[in-house]
Write a structure and sequence with these properties.
Layout: E1 5-9, H1 11-18, E2 24-25, E3 32-40, E4 45-52, E5 64-70, H2 77-83, E6 88-93, E7 96-106, E8 109-123, E9 126-133, H3 140-148, E10 150-151, H4 161-168
Antiparallel strand pairs: 1-3, 2-10, 3-4, 4-5, 5-9, 6-7, 7-8, 8-9
Length: 180
Protein backbone atom coordinates (compact mmCIF):
# COMPACT_ATOMS: atom_id res chain seq x y z
CA UNK A 1 0.00 0.00 0.00
CA UNK A 2 1.21 3.46 -0.89
CA UNK A 3 1.86 5.67 2.10
CA UNK A 4 -0.13 8.88 2.33
CA UNK A 5 0.84 12.28 3.67
CA UNK A 6 -2.02 14.64 4.47
CA UNK A 7 -1.42 18.35 4.93
CA UNK A 8 -3.38 21.53 5.75
CA UNK A 9 -5.40 19.64 8.38
CA UNK A 10 -7.03 20.74 11.60
CA UNK A 11 -5.65 19.10 14.75
CA UNK A 12 -8.90 17.12 15.14
CA UNK A 13 -8.68 15.80 11.57
CA UNK A 14 -5.06 14.73 12.08
CA UNK A 15 -5.99 13.03 15.37
CA UNK A 16 -8.84 11.22 13.64
CA UNK A 17 -6.53 9.92 10.90
CA UNK A 18 -3.88 8.88 13.44
CA UNK A 19 -6.25 7.32 15.95
CA UNK A 20 -4.66 9.05 18.94
CA UNK A 21 -4.71 12.43 20.65
CA UNK A 22 -1.64 14.62 20.42
CA UNK A 23 -0.45 16.88 23.21
CA UNK A 24 -0.68 20.55 22.23
CA UNK A 25 1.07 23.48 23.90
CA UNK A 26 -0.98 25.32 26.51
CA UNK A 27 1.30 28.32 25.96
CA UNK A 28 3.41 29.40 23.01
CA UNK A 29 6.39 31.73 22.73
CA UNK A 30 5.30 35.31 22.03
CA UNK A 31 4.25 35.88 18.44
CA UNK A 32 3.53 32.24 17.58
CA UNK A 33 0.20 30.65 16.61
CA UNK A 34 -0.96 27.30 15.26
CA UNK A 35 -0.66 27.20 11.45
CA UNK A 36 -1.73 23.72 10.26
CA UNK A 37 -1.44 20.01 11.02
CA UNK A 38 -0.18 17.15 8.89
CA UNK A 39 -0.51 13.37 9.13
CA UNK A 40 1.86 10.76 7.65
CA UNK A 41 0.47 7.22 7.74
CA UNK A 42 3.82 5.53 7.05
CA UNK A 43 5.01 6.59 10.52
CA UNK A 44 1.57 7.08 12.10
CA UNK A 45 2.82 10.60 12.78
CA UNK A 46 1.03 13.88 13.44
CA UNK A 47 2.89 17.14 12.81
CA UNK A 48 1.62 20.38 14.35
CA UNK A 49 3.14 23.39 12.61
CA UNK A 50 3.38 26.76 14.32
CA UNK A 51 4.26 30.06 12.67
CA UNK A 52 4.87 33.55 13.98
CA UNK A 53 4.66 37.15 12.87
CA UNK A 54 7.65 38.28 10.86
CA UNK A 55 6.61 41.89 10.19
CA UNK A 56 9.08 44.20 11.88
CA UNK A 57 10.67 41.34 13.77
CA UNK A 58 14.32 41.89 14.60
CA UNK A 59 14.90 38.81 16.78
CA UNK A 60 16.38 36.88 13.86
CA UNK A 61 14.10 33.91 14.49
CA UNK A 62 12.92 31.87 11.58
CA UNK A 63 9.35 32.02 12.75
CA UNK A 64 8.23 28.41 12.67
CA UNK A 65 8.53 25.20 14.61
CA UNK A 66 6.91 21.77 14.56
CA UNK A 67 5.67 19.37 17.22
CA UNK A 68 5.69 15.77 16.02
CA UNK A 69 4.13 12.72 17.67
CA UNK A 70 4.65 9.30 16.07
CA UNK A 71 3.07 5.99 17.06
CA UNK A 72 5.22 3.91 14.71
CA UNK A 73 8.38 4.05 16.80
CA UNK A 74 11.49 2.34 15.44
CA UNK A 75 14.14 3.90 17.67
CA UNK A 76 14.88 4.60 21.31
CA UNK A 77 16.64 7.54 22.92
CA UNK A 78 19.68 5.31 23.38
CA UNK A 79 19.86 4.33 19.69
CA UNK A 80 19.60 8.01 18.72
CA UNK A 81 22.20 9.06 21.28
CA UNK A 82 24.63 6.22 20.58
CA UNK A 83 24.67 6.96 16.85
CA UNK A 84 26.13 10.45 17.51
CA UNK A 85 26.78 11.03 21.24
CA UNK A 86 28.81 14.14 20.43
CA UNK A 87 25.76 16.05 19.15
CA UNK A 88 23.18 15.29 21.86
CA UNK A 89 22.67 16.62 25.34
CA UNK A 90 20.59 14.52 27.76
CA UNK A 91 17.79 16.43 29.53
CA UNK A 92 14.66 15.61 31.50
CA UNK A 93 11.38 16.85 30.03
CA UNK A 94 7.92 16.11 31.45
CA UNK A 95 9.56 13.62 33.81
CA UNK A 96 10.99 11.68 30.85
CA UNK A 97 14.56 11.38 29.61
CA UNK A 98 15.01 13.55 26.53
CA UNK A 99 17.64 14.46 23.95
CA UNK A 100 18.40 18.02 22.91
CA UNK A 101 20.16 18.65 19.62
CA UNK A 102 21.51 21.90 18.25
CA UNK A 103 23.45 22.16 15.04
CA UNK A 104 23.68 21.59 11.34
CA UNK A 105 24.84 18.80 9.07
CA UNK A 106 26.72 19.83 5.93
CA UNK A 107 28.31 17.22 3.67
CA UNK A 108 28.29 14.69 6.51
CA UNK A 109 30.06 17.06 8.91
CA UNK A 110 28.40 18.29 12.12
CA UNK A 111 28.64 21.97 13.05
CA UNK A 112 27.26 23.26 16.36
CA UNK A 113 25.84 26.39 14.75
CA UNK A 114 22.62 27.74 16.25
CA UNK A 115 20.58 26.53 13.29
CA UNK A 116 18.51 23.44 13.71
CA UNK A 117 17.36 22.55 17.22
CA UNK A 118 15.26 19.67 18.44
CA UNK A 119 14.02 18.09 21.65
CA UNK A 120 12.98 14.41 21.53
CA UNK A 121 11.39 12.17 24.16
CA UNK A 122 9.00 9.23 24.48
CA UNK A 123 5.72 9.47 26.37
CA UNK A 124 2.68 7.17 26.56
CA UNK A 125 3.97 4.99 23.72
CA UNK A 126 4.56 7.91 21.34
CA UNK A 127 7.78 9.51 20.16
CA UNK A 128 7.55 13.29 20.57
CA UNK A 129 9.86 15.81 18.95
CA UNK A 130 9.80 19.59 18.85
CA UNK A 131 12.06 21.00 16.18
CA UNK A 132 12.76 24.06 14.11
CA UNK A 133 15.48 26.22 12.66
CA UNK A 134 16.29 29.16 14.90
CA UNK A 135 19.02 31.65 15.51
CA UNK A 136 20.46 31.68 19.01
CA UNK A 137 17.48 33.74 20.18
CA UNK A 138 15.57 30.51 20.86
CA UNK A 139 17.34 27.76 22.73
CA UNK A 140 16.57 24.69 24.76
CA UNK A 141 14.87 26.61 27.58
CA UNK A 142 12.17 27.74 25.13
CA UNK A 143 11.82 24.27 23.59
CA UNK A 144 11.64 22.76 27.08
CA UNK A 145 9.03 25.35 28.07
CA UNK A 146 6.87 24.42 25.08
CA UNK A 147 7.27 20.72 25.94
CA UNK A 148 6.37 21.24 29.61
CA UNK A 149 3.18 23.09 28.60
CA UNK A 150 1.88 20.26 26.40
CA UNK A 151 -1.58 19.02 27.30
CA UNK A 152 -4.53 17.28 25.71
CA UNK A 153 -6.70 20.18 24.55
CA UNK A 154 -10.40 19.86 25.22
CA UNK A 155 -10.19 17.24 27.96
CA UNK A 156 -11.35 18.46 31.34
CA UNK A 157 -9.59 15.62 33.15
CA UNK A 158 -6.83 13.33 31.95
CA UNK A 159 -8.27 10.12 30.55
CA UNK A 160 -11.82 11.48 30.24
CA UNK A 161 -12.05 10.11 26.71
CA UNK A 162 -15.85 9.76 26.51
CA UNK A 163 -16.49 13.47 27.11
CA UNK A 164 -13.77 14.42 24.64
CA UNK A 165 -15.28 12.09 22.02
CA UNK A 166 -18.68 13.67 22.62
CA UNK A 167 -17.18 17.13 22.28
CA UNK A 168 -15.45 16.43 18.96
CA UNK A 169 -18.23 14.20 17.60
CA UNK A 170 -16.39 10.98 16.75
CA UNK A 171 -14.75 8.07 18.58
CA UNK A 172 -11.00 8.00 19.17
CA UNK A 173 -9.19 4.77 18.38
CA UNK A 174 -6.78 3.71 21.10
CA UNK A 175 -3.73 1.68 20.07
CA UNK A 176 -4.26 -1.97 20.98
CA UNK A 177 -0.60 -2.32 21.85
CA UNK A 178 1.85 0.36 22.84
CA UNK A 179 5.25 0.21 21.10
CA UNK A 180 8.05 -0.41 23.57
Amino acid sequence: AKSMHYTDLTVAAAERLAGFLIYQPASLPAGYAFDYAEYDDSHQAIFLNYAGQTDGDTSGLLKEFTIMAAASVTETLDTLYNAHPEIYERLTVRGQQALYFQGCWANGIYDRCAGSQSLTWFEKGLEYSIYGVFTNAMFKATLSGIAESLTIVGQSTAGNLASYEAQIGYPIKILASIPT
